[in-house]
Write a structure and sequence with these properties.
heterodimer, A: 339 residues, alpha/beta, Rossmann fold, 2 domains, six-stranded parallel sheet, six-stranded mixed sheet, 17% strand, elongated, B: 320 residues, mainly alpha, ABC transporter involved in vitamin B12 uptake, BtuC, two-stranded antiparallel sheet, 2% strand, globular, signal (chain A)
Chain lengths: 339, 320
């Protein structure tokens, strides 16, 4: 009896396996598989990126599988997603690394198996661990808002508050240092992961890119320096928190808040006058370029390489002559999140 | 009642947090001249009010030797429900707020039923409901911040003048809730039952106290406190934030432990929890005023938590 059952099981398994193989090879023949791994699947920025990639893939006859870590910083979740995608036959993996250093061994394993890996939004560390990088130049994003804030402030002595991400994060450092450079302060260069400091920066605090924590940080900075006139923020939720703190203290007039991201909520805050200017980045473009590169690799075997800047635009409704910017309407057309 | 008042007061456990808070305040007062002011103190109260009110519910649960990991996410769900009901469905603000508090209370009820009826460990139950609450929050809000709220919804975040200090209504509400909880735990029979259940559930059951009912009520009441915290969170930030509550569960447990409440149940005072929350707030505020990275606050908190638990263990040993 048991022998018979084993035979039956074996036969059944073989049939299922064969069917799966046929299906897989049919899929392979018909359409290239592309994997997209984001930091989380809840942040609107990555939701938009996923939408963009899915549409682009569909339009070009490819299949996109998406995965993500559980939270920002969840490297293990990204590694798991990558393994599963390679098992599903993905020949190209697009990834926004949660942990730039920790993901490198997994990327190497994938590339050794002939998979092309492209980093989106932020680089792996070292950057040449991936075939290519399609991302915003965060330093440039910082420079743009730094120049704007300096011009908007005019000849008044600057009292700057910076609400940063958290210590040691390259994106946080690049935006902060770029802002300093644009403002005309003595700034570290784009390669530095250290937050620069200057006498004009009267308070530095960590916001973790979160609205409530940004508000707390701004309140404490206001205690320290009641007469702040420029606030740099790592992203728009932190900027909203900063504005809240200023408003509660009756100081929302005459303080210039600048930020980075260009999400739809952030653009609305620019329109409402809460944020003076923001550097908008383009997750849809990163995703679409990633898909194009994947199709190219699947059809011709040619891999993408190097760094491609997906561009950044200053969005403000109070343009200053000599500083290139677009208005809120243009920003809304290209923003991500709920319009 | 079997427990005398002395049993509830491990001397180290209660005095320790107060001493730590005083030392921290003294230290910052010498480091920066902006620290010692009514305005700054009012600010710290505002900054700890959300975690402070969550921690009241958490204290009740920990007093029964349970733990609630879901509190932060449940608070976030409550704030999304009340803001979406008001902003998207256009319900009157009081109704929307009541719905938010009803949802957090329902989660408390679910936690309580699973712990009392199915006899599942609270740690595991609330780990499950943490994930469920998070997922519902993300799905219902589509991970989008809810904005354009009616003014009435953020009224608790507004301030009134007291001398030359602006005090937030929400901070006053938090202090009132602490007084209420302190009174109930100390002066009412129900309060004494909570201590008894935490001290020795079996002995308590044998004396005829309905232990399961006490346990269930504690989880439900904690759910009500999380709902009030939802409202405080909304009134503070002015939005419904789906990403709120990610660190609040451990922050609340930290406040409870720093305040000298024993994780073994049955021992601790609610005012200690407020002191515990204030210690964290004072360090965050003081270090920013000094121009030092707030990461050091995390480091100090870690050390203090271990000291607090060690103090609790010492006093348990000496009580034997």
């Amino acid at each position: 009896m048991p022998a018979q059952r084993t035979a039956f099981h074996f036969a059944a398994t073989a049939v299922v396996a064969a069917a799966a193989l046929c299906a897989a090879s049919a899929a392979n023949a018909a359409e290239p598989v592309i994997g997209l791994i984001t930091k989380t699947d809840t942040n609107p920025f990555f939701v938009k990126m996923k939408e963009g990639a899915t549409e682009a893939a569909k339009a070009k006859g490819a299949k996109l599988i998406a995965g993500a870590g559980k939270a920002d910083g969840d490297n293990a979740g990204q590694v798991t997603a990558m393994e599963n995608m390679i098992a599903a036959g993905a020949k190209t993996i697009l990834i926004t690394p949660s942990d730039a250093k920790a993901i490198v061994p997994a990327i190497k394993k994938a590339r050794d198996r002939g998979v092309m890996v492209i980093a989106l939004d932020s680089p792996a560390d070292p950057a040449d661990a991936t075939d290519a990088l399609f991302a915003t130049n965060n330093y440039t994003a910082g420079v743009l808002i730094g120049q704007y804030a300096k011009a908007a402030l005019g000849n008044k002595p600057a009292k700057i508050v910076t609400l940063d991400l958290f210590p040691g994060h390259p994106v946080g450092a690049q935006r902060h240092n770029g802002f300093m450079k644009g403002f005309g302060l003595n700034a570290p260069d784009a390669k530095s992961n250290e937050l620069g400091s200057d006498a004009a920066i009267v308070c530095q605090a960590d916001s973790f890119g979160d609205q409530a924590k940004g508000q707390t940080a701004m309140e404490n900075c206001l205690q320290k320096v009641p007469d702040v006139n420029v606030v740099y923020t790592i992203n728009e939720p932190a900027a909203a928190g900063a504005f809240n703190a200023l408003k509660k203290a009756g100081k929302d007039k005459g303080v210039i808040i600048v930020s980075v991201d260009g999400g739809c909520q952030g653009i609305r805050d620019v329109k409402a006058g809460k944020i003076a200017a923001t550097s908008q980045q383009y997750p849809l473009k990163m995703a679409a370029m990633g898909v194009d590169a994947a199709i190219e690799y699947a059809t011709s075997g040619k891999k993408a390489s190097g760094y491609v800047d997906t561009g950044v635009t200053l969005i403000t409704d109070k343009p200053i002559s000599g500083i290139e910017s677009k208005d809120v309407k243009a920003g809304t057309d290209l923003c991500w999140g709920k319009k | 009642m079997a427990t005398s008042f002395k049993d509830k007061l491990p001397p180290m456990g209660v005095l320790g947090p107060f001493i730590a808070l005083l030392l921290a305040c003294l230290f910052f007062a010498t480091q920066t001249d902006r620290f010692l002011s009514g305005q700054n103190f009012s600010l710290i109260l505002q900054q700890v009010m959300v975690v402070g009110v969550i921690a009241i519910g958490q204290t009740l649960i920990i007093l029964t030797a349970g733990i609630d990991l879901s509190c932060g996410m449940v608070m976030a769900l409550g704030s999304i429900v009340m803001t979406k009901f008001a902003a998207d469905l256009g319900l009157p603000t009081p109704v929307a707020i009541a719905c938010g508090i009803a949802v957090t209370t329902l989660f408390g009820l679910i936690n309580g039923l699973l712990v009392t009826r199915l006899k599942l460990p609270p740690f595991i139950v609330t780990l499950g409901t943490l994930n469920i609450a998070f997922a519902i929050t993300q799905l219902y809000s589509q991970s989008q911040t809810v904005t354009d709220l009616p003014d009435a919804m953020t009224w608790l975040g507004t301030t009134f003048g007291l001398g030359n200090t602006n005090v937030a209504y929400g901070a006053v509400l938090m202090l009132l809730l602490y007084f209420l909880a302190w009174f109930a735990l100390r002066e009412t029979q129900a309060g004494r039952h909570v201590y008894a259940v935490g001290n020795n559930p079996e002995a308590t059951r044998l004396t005829g106290i309905p232990t399961q009912k006490v346990l269930l009520s504690v989880y439900v009441i904690a759910g009500v406190f999380y709902g009030i915290a939802s409202l405080l969170s909304v009134s503070r930030t002015g939005v419904g934030d789906p990403n709120a509550g990610q660190t609040e569960n451990l922050d609340a447990i930290t406040a409870v432990v720093l305040g000298g409440t024993s994780l073994f149940g049955g021992r601790g005072v609610i005012i200690g929890t407020l002191v515990g929350a204030l210690i964290v707030g004072v360090f965050r505020n003081g270090l920013t005023l000094m121009g030092v990275s707030s990461v050091y606050q995390v480091l100090v908190t870690g050390v203090l938590v271990i000291l607090a638990v060690a103090a609790d263990q010492m006093s348990r040993k000496s009580a034997r």
